[in-house]
Amino acid sequence: xxxxxxxxxxxxxxxxxxxxxxxxxxxxxxxxxxxxxxxxxxxxxxxxxxxxxxxxxxxxxxxxxxxxxxxxxxxxxxxxxxxxxxxxxxxxxxxxxxxxxxxxxxxxxxxxxxxxxxxxxxxxxxxxxxxxxxxxxxxxxxxxxxxxxxxxxxxxxxxxxxxxxxxxxxxxxxxxxxxxxxxxxxxxxxxxxxxxxxxxxxxxxxxxxxxxxxxxxxxxxxxxxxxxxxxxxxxxxxxxxxxxxxxxxxxxxxxx
Amino acid sequence: xxxxxxxxxxxxxxxxxxxxxxxxxxxxxxxxxxxxxxxxxxxxxxxxxxxxxxxxxxxxxxxxxxxxxxxxxxxxxxxxxxxxxxxxxxxxxxxxxxxxxxxxxxxxxxxxxxxxxxxxxxxxxxxxxxxxxxxxxxxxxxxxxxxxxxxxxxxxxxxxxxxxxxxxxxxxxxxxxxxxxxxxxxxxxxxxxxxxxxxxxxxxxxxxxxxxxxxxxxxxxxxxxxxxxxxxxxxxxxxxxxxxxxxxxxxxxxxxxxxxxxxxxxxxxxxxxxxxxxxxxxxxxxxxx
Amino acid sequence: xxxxxxxxxxxxxxxxxxxxxxxxxxxxxxxxxxxxxxxxxxxxxxxxxxxxxxxxxxxxxxxxxxxxxxxxxxxxxxxxxxxxxxxxxxxxxxxxxxxxxxxxxxxxxxxxxxxxxxxxxxxxxxxxxxxxxxxxxxxxxxxxxxxxxxxxxxxxxxxxxxxxxxxxxxxxxxxxxxxxxxxxxxxxxxxxxxxxxxxxxxxxxxxxxxxxxxxxxxxxxxxxxxxxxxxxxxxxxxxxxxxxxxxxxxxxxxxxxxxxxxxxxxxxxxxxxxxxxxxxxxxxxxxxxxxxxxxxxxxxxxxxxxxxxxxxxxxxxxxxxxxxxxxxx
Lengths: 256, 289, 329
What we know:
- The complex is a heterotrimer.
- Chain A is of the alpha/beta class.
- Chain A has ten helices and ten strands.
- In chain A, a hairpin with a 2-residue loop joins strand 1 (5-14) and strand 2.
- In chain A, helix 3 (96-103) packs across helix 5 (122-137).
- In chain A, 43% of the residues are buried.
- Chain B is an all-alpha fold.
- Chain B has helices spanning 3-32, 41-59, 63-86, 93-115, 140-162, 164-174, 176-181, 186-208, 219-233, 238-258, 261-278, and strands spanning 130-133, 136-139.
- In chain B, a hairpin with a 2-residue loop joins strand 1 and strand 2 (136-139).
- The radius of gyration of chain B is 18 Å and the shape is globular.
- In chain C, strands 1-2 form a two-stranded antiparallel sheet.
- Chain C contains 14 helices and two strands, in the order ααααααββαααααααα.
- Chain C has helices at residues 8-27, 30-54, 62-79, 84-106, 111-131, 133-136, 164-187, 189-199, 201-206, 211-237, 247-260, 267-281, 289-303, 311-328; strands at residues 149-150, 159-160.
- The chains are: A alpha/beta, B mainly alpha, C mainly alpha.
- Chains in contact: A-C, B-C.
- The B-C interface holds B 35, 37, 84-85, 88-89, 92-99, 101-106, 108-110, 112-113, 117, 220, 224, 227-228, 231, 260, 262-263, 265-266, 269-270, 272-273, 276-277, 280, 288-289 and C 58, 105-106, 108-109, 111-113, 115-117, 120-121, 123-124, 127-128, 130-131, 247, 251, 254, 258, 287-288, 290-291, 293-298, 301-302, 305.
């Protein structure tokens, strides 16, 4: 059976530096997969490769049978694989609701003719309802009319996820979703990601630094070190894997 | 084509390349340090010509002194640009660029009101007559230009590599944050850059004053060409600017001789668009525009 | 978001303006009427420029694109003798096509490189006009562009556009049409998607917006309306002088957009209006005028870069600041 999302022998070189070396992995539909590793393991490069920001030096990334490596990000999004950003990525001059609405671009009629001649119709009303649904689902409905620029950092990250959801993706790629958050915010984000998979059936692939979060959230974990895949398995497998422990020895994170 | 035509063309190209180098180098320095793009660079060139007109033709100061004086006078104008336009718009290249367009208008009007708009000011050359090289007649006035350029560009090279302020300028162009951390004053550097920028453009205009028609609008074509050169040579690269200046000087002269100057400009402009689209860092540059 | 709920003030204000423009021929002299017609053409041009500016793409070739529309009109109307209802759409399409030719390579560049490259391409076209006597007329341009007429004379529907009143209304119709179309685009889903490109390009890409393609489309739509402005200009003046499509005119276009601002839809209109008024009032200053406008451009870019449209916000901020200072001090 064709894997939902698969990475085959993915390699990325920057001049003489090999940032990602022959990484392969498969993600099944409906999984919540975490990719972790100590500092400098190549997680960011990996994320940029699978989300279309970098072209691989060799190897390929496939999604639902399509090769997505080397495609521009917007084409990958069109195929149903959408990424979020670690930084606060939002349209600052628009409200929260408007941001989500803009993100529905792929699923609405945004043609020039419609812009000039179209008018409010059923489809527009439907999209607006869906946008409201997403906002409520993520618990940010209180701020629906707030300017995106005025949100707190945590809320901005949630808005980022909301916008990604608005594209109705099948695969959500999260770039360090809990970076810079306190434990309360982290718990909220973890709950949100679980809800996204449970209620909307979205497969989640996340790259993250925070071990504890990944252990709590992900069913399967891939560990990178020195640009290569070190280990893969359930949280228990990873926890008790001596190589993983050694890779993290001396680092600030503890494995449990 | 006879030998004399070839020599003539070569000599003209050398002169043109020299002036282009003089004008383009200033632009490259300004852009290299804090991305100051000067729309009115041509007007600085024009100001240099008018310095010669005012001092040499009207007052009677010897030509070479007038040329030398053009450096500090136009350098000062450059520093005014820096203080009043580039510093407040620092970080926004387009804003600074468009604001200097406004400054260009002002300079044109000031000069026009003072010395007349319509009439071309023809400046008598202080070195009448010409010499013959392999059958081609080259005026003494033109003969002056290539050596003058060599001296100036050489002096600049010395300044940038051996003199403390010059080295600081280069450091600032390469990495402004690091330079600031080392205690190099950013404002001093931007002021210095515009000083050099104005000075070089001014001397270029001064040297050309007896050769080309002097009007308040004379700077436009030279500015356009300077931008083409700097873009082709790499926006912040001085070596690139000098090399590209001579290459373009040759191309322009040859095309002008074979066809006409309109075609020559078209070729230059086309080349510029090509470089911007295919290699935005220019032939030699590192800084992305 | 695609519904526009105007406040009553805005609606009343617009009505007053529209009424003025409809009654204008009765209120002003024939000479002033010609100026008003040029004003309308500038409005179309400025609003079309704004479309590109909202995606963050400021160009230096827009005035020349208007020239493309003008030359197309001149050639088709004078040399081919075609009627206006053929000439005008063709001029717009030709300009949109030239815009496409510009846009495809230009979309590979951004920011300052984009700006200068657009200048280079515009200059190339201008030199083509200067060089080729046929069909552009070289340095002399095109003269004697015939104005059009509907009918032969004698019919009830006969309209003679040589009459400046009739031509004024003709231009007014197109101006209102342009403003409505560009307004609808601005408030539409597509318009917001385009604005998002300027705000955060990476983010737009990630939600599926093809940024390169969008920029090209915006360029072409913008060029289409620039062509319309050029066509009206060619008919109005009756001749085309390549000297009138130089850097000075382009800088004035930018002055309108800087002074008025481009963030809100009405910014460029404010810019064209205020600068046209200043232009007329300073006619006695004659040769000093360019210096005045140069100064205006500098002052706005340095002190009020957002343009007049941001003035209410800035004043509010200043008042808040001074009242806070008074409380503290």
